[in-house]
Structure formats: C-alpha cells, structure tokens
Write a structure and sequence with these properties.
Helix content of chain B: 25-40%
Shape of chain B: globular
Order of helices and strands of chain B: EHEHEEHHEEEHEHHEHHHEHEHEE
Number of strands of chain B: 13
Number of helices of chain B: 12
Number of strands of chain A: 8
Strand content of chain B: 15-25%
Radius of gyration of chain A: 15 Å
Distance between the termini of chain A: 29 Å
Oligomer: heterodimer
Order of helices and strands of chain A: HEEEEEHHHHEEEH
Helix content of chain A: 25-40%
Strand content of chain A: 15-25%
Structural class of chain B: alpha/beta
Radius of gyration of chain B: 20 Å
Distance between the termini of chain B: 25 Å
C-alpha cells in the first residue's frame, strides 16, 4: 500500500502526463515546488488562519478546476470538505481569491473567461478523491483516482457531467 | 552514496539537483533506533529533511522550506542544525530570504539578521560549513517556482560531490557565504532590531537574576550549579505557554539554539557557555511542566533540557541535565522515539 507522499507524487505525475496544469496545493509533508493555496474563511476576522481550508492538489484544464484530496484510504472527511468548498459561494469566492493572491493565473498563463462564472456556479469545478485501490470509490458526483505502484486508474462517478467526461476521455 | 529523507518529495527533489545523484538510492529516515548509526547520530534533537551519506558517513544535512522567513517554521529547525554541526556534518538551509506573507496581515517579510548570526556562529564554533541558500522571489516577492529557484543548490551539490566533500575545494561555498554576509549586513542596517534579541528574550546580570530567584524560590535556587553562578550574564528566553497548551516543543526547542549560539555559546558542547541560557515559563507550574514536557530521551521534550542551564517556572526551578546532548551518557538511547516527528 502506498503512503500519502507516494500517492501525491504519483498523482502529480499523472496530472502532468495528462495535460493538467498543476496550480497549487498542500503536500502531505515537506516542501514542494507548487504554491500552497489557503482558502480563507471570509467570516473570520481574527489573526492567523483559523477556519481556513487547504486542498491537496488543485489543477486546471480547458476551463475546469480539478480539486483533489488524497489519502492512503478513502476518507469521508475529504468528501465533506470538497462538498463544502464547491457548494458554498463564499468558499468559491475564497478559492478564486487565493489563486489571485498567489498570482497563479499570471504565472501559469491561464485566463478565466469570467471570474464570476466560478464564483456564482459550481459548473466548472470537478471534485475528486485519490487513494490506494481498496475496492471503494468516491461518491457519484466525484472523480476517483485509484492509485497503485504502477498505475493510476480514473473512475468517473455516474453523476459526472458530459463535458467533464469529455476532458477525461481525451 | 545514499540519500535519506523525511518526506519522499524532498528526497526526490534533492536527488534531482545533480546528475551525479540520479542513480543514488533514496531511503526514508525511519523511527529512532531503526536507522544506521550514521543517521541516528543526527536525530538527537529532531529529524532533518535530508541526510546525504557518502562512504558510510553523513556528509550533508539539508533543510528546505518555502515558509516566510520570519515565522516559527524557520526558527524551529535550528535544533537540527545544532545536532548536525555537533556531529561535524555540513548544513545547508534552503529558504527564501524575503517573501510575501499572504492573508489578512499580508506584507513583505525579510529574514531577520539574527538567523544569519546564529548560522555563522555555528560555523565558527564547530568549524564546519553552515550555509543558508536563498530561494529567490519575483518582483512581487512571490517565490519563483519555475525550476530556476534551485540553481544555487544545484551548483553547490554538484561541486560538493565532485570534490568528495572536501569543503576547502568547493568555491561556491565562499560565494554563498558572501551572499549571507551581505544579507546579514543589509538586514542589520535596515532593521537593526533583528540583529538583537527579540522581545521574548532579555539579558540580566546573573547576580541580580539569582538574587531575585533566591527571594522567590529560595530552596530551588540553592541547587543552581556553580558554573551558572560564575557566568556574568544570563540570557532569559520567555515562553508564553499556558498550562492548557504547554505540551508542545516547536518552535521553542529549536529557536533556543539561535539565542544560545549568538549570545551564550563559547564552544562546541552545550555546557561551553559564557552566559547562562534560561527558559522562563511563568504561567506553568513545575508539576504541570514535568507532566507535559519530561526530560525523557524518548520524547522530543527532552530537547528543552539539551542546552538551557535551567528552566524557571511559576513555582520553582528545574536544573537542566541533558539526556541527549553531545557527550551525554544517554546519547545512544535505546528508547523508541516516535515523538521525533514533525
């Protein structure tokens, strides 16, 4: 069974090979070459990062953000976290602000058609989880990455939209 | 050669720094007492990010961070450096000398001059290179992440390997030292307070401080060692921990070495001091402190006792008797140190 660091590195490699632009994230340990993106709770006015959220890997392709949480095994807390971020307008705003703050769009050469599209709707977000192959997959509106030592298998939930399926089919 | 890492991605990053390392095996640093002795020697105070072994000897300890250089994350690593130089192993700290802090209190953060002062003093005392290498940033103080940020590290690692870790032949070491000196001078000039002790640290005449301690803790003060009483000055590092939140080591156990090396140390052993180093935790009782942070060599809390002379608590003193420091009888501990994790 792979540990979280091994899964993280395998996923990063897979994303690069499949033309995803890795924008940022938080490695399971250590220091990485991608920016740490922290989504700030806009209701919290105190000092520090209380209430903020970090996503393990954030990548981009053809107008879609892929938000990916990784663990060695399936964890419902990852599902809950991504549902909360994608499902809440304030968190979507915090997400766009985090990318802007770290100059991610400029550094990666990405131009969004309209930021409000990403704040007002959930359409361009792909929720995903990745873990060792254990026979389990994520919820129906998630993309699941099953990672083993020699391959990464992608499972699209039954509620994944046609336009997202198109991205993963190419 | 073998590369040992605390986290795989850093191990792979280090291996990719030089074509001369591409075929070198990389291995995780295991739990305490499960590693070769060459590795165990470097885990007494904490776990470094990278340890490079060549000819069965540790040759290089590397730390890497992208955190802004003013925060706890930087200071807490100094215990790893102290351990490395005590074992005569070269240290390289790869970090941004300046970077943008984000969030509600956003702003440009510059490295404090005292970080360089501590590294320079470590090198001076132990006679082994101790370098800080800059992770560059762009014109808006965002870290460069296009691969070019590693150029200086690549040059250094290449030269070290080519020259068989004969440091005197590695010219880039002198170049990097010059960068550090220039940066230290610049920060000392622009922000002179960063070359002095921070607000949590103060110096008192030992006689005055001991007089005070005698009044408040007469019995405990009698037990102070004579060498402590002989030193003219005492440096007091105040830790603002509460009884509820005192079971923690970072950043204090590492940061104490910054102040120790700059303002107290005169030689390679922690006991080689010209000024006392005291940890002051005024809100926590002795009983609560010992319960939360025992001098147990199987726990990272033992680092509190590794270089300080004594700890002053709410209701008394604890004399520090290192169980893990250089030359301590229990340096080769047999305990399982599961707590020595970041």
């Amino acid at each position: 069974m792979l540990n979280e660091s091994e899964i993280y590195l395998s996923i990063k490699k897979w994303l690069k090979e499949n033309e995803w632009v890795i924008l940022g994230g938080e490695p399971p340990g250590g220091t990485n070459d991608i920016p740490l993106l922290e989504l700030k709770d806009i209701d919290y006015m105190g000092k520090g990062s209380k209430g903020s959220k970090k996503i393990d890997v954030i990548s981009y392709q053809n107008g879609f953000f892929l938000l990916l949480e990784l663990k060695s095994r399936f964890s419902y807390s990852d599902v809950r976290k991504l549902n909360e971020i994608v499902g809440d307008k304030n968190w979507r705003l915090a997400f766009i602000m985090a990318l802007r703050e770290k100059r991610v769009f400029e550094n990666s050469g990405i131009t969004l058609p309209s930021e409000s599209l990403y704040i007002d709707t959930t359409r361009y977000y792909i929720k995903s989880v990745g873990f060792n192959y254990t026979g389990k997959v994520g919820p129906r509106d998630f993309v699941t990455f099953l990672v083993s030592r020699d391959k990464v298998e992608v499972v699209l939930g039954t509620r994944i939209s046609g336009e997202v399926r198109q991205i993963f089919s190419t | 050669m073998i590369i040992y890492y605390d986290d795989l991605q850093e191990g792979e990053w280090f291996r990719d720094l030089s074509p001369l390392l591409h075929t070198v095996p990389i291995r995780p640093i295991g739990r305490r007492n499960t590693n070769p002795s060459a590795i165990e020697r470097l885990l007494r105070y904490d776990r470094p990010d990278i340890i490079l072994i060549a000819d069965n000897e540790p040759r290089l300890v590397v730390e890497k961070t992208s955190e802004v250089p003013t925060g706890h994350n930087v200071g807490q690593r100094f215990g790893r450096f102290a351990n490395a130089v005590e074992e005569q192993v070269m240290v390289v700290f790869f970090l941004p000398f300046v970077a943008m802090k984000h969030g509600r209190y956003a702003g440009v953060c510059y490295i404090p001059a005292r970080f360089f002062m501590a590294l320079e003093k470590m090198e001076e005392i132990h006679g082994i290179p101790v370098l800080a290498v800059n992770w560059p940033c762009d014109d808006r103080f965002e870290l460069v992440r296009d691969g070019s940020q590693d150029e200086a590290m690549k040059g250094l690692v290449d030269e070290l390997v080519i020259n068989g870790f004969n440091y005197s032949r590695v010219k880039i070491i002198d170049e990097l030292r010059d960068v550090m000196k220039k940066m230290r001078a610049e920060r000392s000039s622009i922000q002179p307070l960063t070359a002095k002790p921070p607000p949590s640290v103060r110096t008192q005449k030992t006689r005055d401080y001991v007089d005070y301690l005698k009044r408040v803790f007469p019995k405990d003060t009698e037990a102070l060692p004579k060498n402590c009483l002989r030193r003219e000055d005492t440096l007091i590092y105040r830790l603002g921990m509460t009884p509820q939140k005192c079971r923690r080591e970072d950043p204090y156990t590492g940061t104490q070495f910054i102040y120790d090396y700059i303002w107290c140390r005169s030689g390679p052993k922690p006991s080689d001091k010209h000024a006392n180093l005291v940890l002051e935790v005024p809100l926590v009782s002795k009983r609560r402190w010992l319960e939360a942070n025992p001098n147990d060599p199987t726990r990272k809390s033992s680092v509190y006792y590794a270089t300080a002379d004594f700890i002053v608590l709410k209701d008394g003193l604890i004399i520090c008797d290192s169980q893990i420091g250089l030359g301590s009888s229990l340096t080769q501990t047999t305990g399982l140190n599961k707590f020595f994790r970041r």
